[in-house]
Design a protein that fits this description.
Layout (H helix, E strand, L loop, with lengths): L3 H14 L3 H53 L7
């Protein structure tokens, strides 16, 4: 048979495991806000990566132009 302490422990554990409908809905709202924030941050990062990609494309294009000019004018490349 269970004594009072065992019953109190069971009640305490049950309260820790089970949540009310309001607690669950609150939890879902908090997570929805977090996911919205993650989506916003992902969109910002995606736009930044696109800008970086565009700038790298320009650098590559300029590198090709410099090589073309050096070849046409027979300019010796600078030593690194």
């Amino acid at each position: 048979m269970l004594d009072d302490k065992d019953i109190e422990k069971l009640i305490k554990v049950q309260k820790e495991v089970f949540v009310t409908k309001e607690e669950f809905e609150g939890f879902m709202e908090v997570n929805a806000k977090r996911f919205d924030k993650i989506d916003e941050n992902f969109d910002k990062m995606s736009k930044r990566f696109d800008k970086i990609d565009e700038k790298l494309d320009k650098v590559v294009e300029l590198d090709h132009r410099v090589a073309y000019i050096e070849n046409n004018l027979n300019i010796q490349p600078l030593k690194k």
